[in-house]
Amino acid sequence: MMRRPLDPLMKLQFNLTARLFAAVLSTAMAVALAMGVFSHLNLSRNFIGYLNEQAVNRLELARTSVTAGYREHGRSWDFLIERPELWGRLLRPLVPEAEMGAVKFGPADLTGATRRFTLFNEDRERIAGYAGPSERAVERPIIVDGLTVGWLTLTPIESVSPGAEKHFYDAQLRSGWIVGAAAVLLAGGVAFWATRRLLRPVRRVAEATHRLAAGDFQVRVPETEGDDDIARLSRDFNQLALTLHRNEAMRREFMADVSHELRTPLGVLNGELEALEDGLRRLDAQALRSLRGEVGILHKLVDDLHELSLADVGALAYRKAAVDLRELVGIAAGAFKERLHGSGLTLRLDLPTDPVMVFGDERRLRQLMGNLIENSCRYTDAGGALQISVQRQGRQAVIDVQDTAPGVDAEHLPRLFERFYRVEPSRSRRSGGSGLGLSICQRIAEAHEGRIDALASPMGGLWLRLVLPIHD
Ligand SMILES: Nc1ncnc2c1ncn2[C@@H]1O[C@H](COP(=O)(O)OP(=O)(O)OP(=O)(O)O)[C@@H](O)[C@H]1O
Ligand SMILES: [Mg+2]
Fold it and tell me: 350 with 441, same domain?
């Protein structure tokens, strides 16, 4: 049963491992390749440069011995033309002329530079040495008694010999294979380890999600520190679980509230009907009025619930147009003249001289004002007052509805907009209230991009402030 959600996860792990493997492998291979190319370039550039530098040093040495040879053989190059084998001996460094021919040799010339030396006379005719000197040859004059009697040149190496190159490439290929194999192993290891490590928390969330889907809203995953995606995933999951938990609790509470609210007027209705049936009460006009009153309460409750549920699914229709709040509030207050009088309240209306325009649904806004004034009629002691003011504050329209005692304690103020919330359930019920009026007001305010807040009024009662955006 727990296995089902894990199968896609195994697939995910496999996919991730494969991708990570490819990524690490290609990185390692690219690095190995770059190193190969780089060391090859290095060899052909720097190593050849090094050989040439050595050769130039040798050239300086050879110049000394060639100059000495010239001087000792009658200040002429003829000796080299007659006996070309002397050229080779002449180039052996650090060997004085006297010892030439003896078995003593100078240090071996490993760079083979002397083979690329060429000797020219003062007229640039070749006397001895390398027969194919290049244009780029390095040359040094042979000076005897202040006169240039010839030139010694060195033809530089331009590339490594094919044999050396092949040897080098073979070595490189061998180490390439070794590096490649090591890279494959490394990539495999890193990919496997990393995906396992990365997926552990994901796996935990997947398991928890499965339990959450099965209705276990208590489930939570351990949250890791940090701000990476995985930590955020765990945090978001826990937030999701918490929200679902809360919503579920609210749903149950709401169902309990609704059934309780419906049960009370139905119970009263049933009791009255039974009394009529048993003949304990006579079916007269007064009994009928009482029955209708109970039915009326039920009717209003069901209407309010319907409206709230429509607002919740976002289906409450609003037909908006430019509305003048000054006029609207005046009309709404006027409609309550009788009611206010009946409750023993005096009304103070404070309206501005200019219209205050908002973009809204006139019917809904009047319903909102009606709910507020109705509340004041119900929950304000006789002899008190109700004050309504409309004003424009910058880009906002502000409507204040305040009344006299009794007020609402500060701790209840923010909760007034909850469904079925009543400060004094008994008093509210007696006056036919079910605690939905202000929730509906809040929905209407929000649907107009506005807000409604409850405060304690300096007049001693409740102060409700509605703020809506101005529409010009
Ligand atoms: N002007 C007021 N003065 C004092 N208390 C108030 C006032 N308006 C509202 N209340 C308190 O706030 C509670 C919630 O008001 P609300 O309008 O949401 O519900 P209701 O009036 O009880 O029922 P309904 O409006 O659904 O018929 C009331 O039950 C009452 O206790
Ligand atoms: Mg009300």
Answer: yes
In a shared domain, residues 434 and 332: yes
Residue nearest to atom 9 of ligand 1 (CA): 375
Domain that holds residue 412: 321-469
- Tell me, yes or no, whether 222 lies in a domain: no
Q: Could you tell me if 380 and 461 lie in one domain?
A: yes
241 and 127 belong to one structural domain: no
* Alpha-carbon gap, residue 464 to 391, rounded angstroms: 14
pLDDT in tens, 138-179: 888 999 888 888 999 988 877 666 666 677 778 877 887 888
- Do 100 and 246 have their domain in common? no
Number of domains in the chain: 3
In the block, residue with structure tokens 């940090």: 226
pLDDT digits (tens, 9 = 90+) for 74-110: 888 888 888 888 888 887 755 444 444 443 444 545 5
CA of 369 relative to ligand 1 center, distance in Å: 13
Pocket, ligand 1, Cβ cutoff 6 A: 304, 371, 375-376, 379-380, 403, 406, 408, 416, 421-424, 428, 433-438, 461-462
Which of these three, 281, 312, 343, is where a domain ends? 312
Global confidence as pTM: 0.60
CATH number at residue 236: 1.10.287.130
426-444 average pLDDT score: 82
